[in-house]
Prior knowledge:
By secondary structure, the chain is an alpha/beta fold. A seven-stranded mixed beta sheet has the order 3-2-1-4-6-5-7. Strand 1 (9-15), helix 1 (22-32) and strand 2 (38-44) form a beta-alpha-beta unit. It has two domains: 9-218, Alpha-Beta Complex (Spore Coat Polysaccharide Biosynthesis Protein SpsA, Chain A); 241-362, no CATH class. Helices cover 52% and strands 11% of the residues. Helix 8 packs across helix 9 (241-267), helix 9 runs antiparallel to helix 10 (273-296) and helix 10 crosses helix 11 (306-336). The chain binds guanosine-5'-diphosphate-alpha-D-mannose and manganese (II) ion. Manganese (II) ion is lined by residues 96, 98, 100, 211, 216. Guanosine-5'-diphosphate-alpha-D-mannose binds at residues 14-16, 18, 43-45, 74-76, 79, 96-98, 100, 143, 162, 164, 185, 216-218, 299.
Amino acid sequence: MNDRAAPILSVIVPTYREAANVPVLFERLKAVLADLAWEMIVVDDDSPDGTADIAFGLAARDPRLRCIRRVKRLGLAGAVIEGILSSSAEFVAVIDGDLQHDEAILPAMAAALTAGAADLAIGVRVDKQAGERGLSPTRQKLSDAGAWFFKRVSGLSVSDPMSGFFMIRRAIVGEIAPRLSSDGFKILADILLCAPPGLRIVETPYVFRKRRAGESKLSPLVAMDFLGLIVHHASAGILPIRFVLFAAVGGLGLVVHLSILKALIAAAALPSFSADQLVATIAAMTSNFLLNNEVTYREYRYRGWSILSGLLLFALVCSVGVVVNIDIASWLFDFDHIWWVAGFAGALVGVVWNYAVSTSFVWRGRRSG
Ligand code: GDD
Ligand code: MN
């Protein structure tokens, strides 16, 4: 007979290249969760440093650890969702695998949930001594602005909707799982926006630590990811987060294009308007590529010299987009003679084309280093 109690808490740990950190985290969980029936579930996206092998090695000796190795699938939110969906425990926690979150607050979070006082406990980063926070000042500002904005759109007053550290009653996520987005990083914000009203939330403070081993996969630009999530929800889930980001980058590209064109014409440095237009086009395409590479398709991004081949591929795809755009617009214009309907429809089809081909062709099947 099995003398081990079934876990009432699963601690989900998404990992990408955290081989050195996983054994340390497991030891720390053993120490702080000694009084609970718990398990740790590592969800690894086939990290090249062998994180999954390390986890499987530990799991072979201790049933409190499980590992899910995902292949050809990338992304933090999706990994977290899969981990949660593999659990049968009453409560699930999500914690980063890089030791930046303080696992010592897990018992307090668990106590709030098991006592029935709350459905969700959020780990909230606090600043202990100024200058000794794990967050850079820029990141702190972005995070505060995000919380304010989140409250405006959702009505939910949580101080850190972008936290990657929380504990929740598993049934809640089970119910909304089909509506959660696996793209992006903001899994907690997504859960909050999808959850039925009346969720009882407690916030548990902790001090965000500096990363010791490995490197961060996110950047301050992930704030754009958060905006993508908000628009995705505002469209009742019709627009995918990635499309929202792609379109936003495209809008920014238009601004870049027109500003450069204006400056070039003013400077009269080039021989003709066509030359000005060509340079502005190339500049806008390059900036679109770089921003999409950094934000929209971050998990799949090109690095080093391969950025050049990515840019060429992107330019090729976009030039087809331009041809399709002009074709559709001219055809519609012949038909109804309303210039803005034709122009808008052409641009829309162009963006959708560029997005679809960028997603499935330019950035697909790649993994950032
Ligand atoms: N499985 C999987 N797949 N795990 C991933 C992936 C991925 O594509 N990308 C990152 N991770 C894992 C990392 O290995 C780490 O354990 C955790 O997710 C967080 O990634 P970091 O790269 O350390 O993120 P961060 O420290 O910059 O960001 C933290 O703060 C953000 C708020 O500012 C995270 O907690 C975010 O979730 C949070 O939104
Ligand atoms: Mn981190």
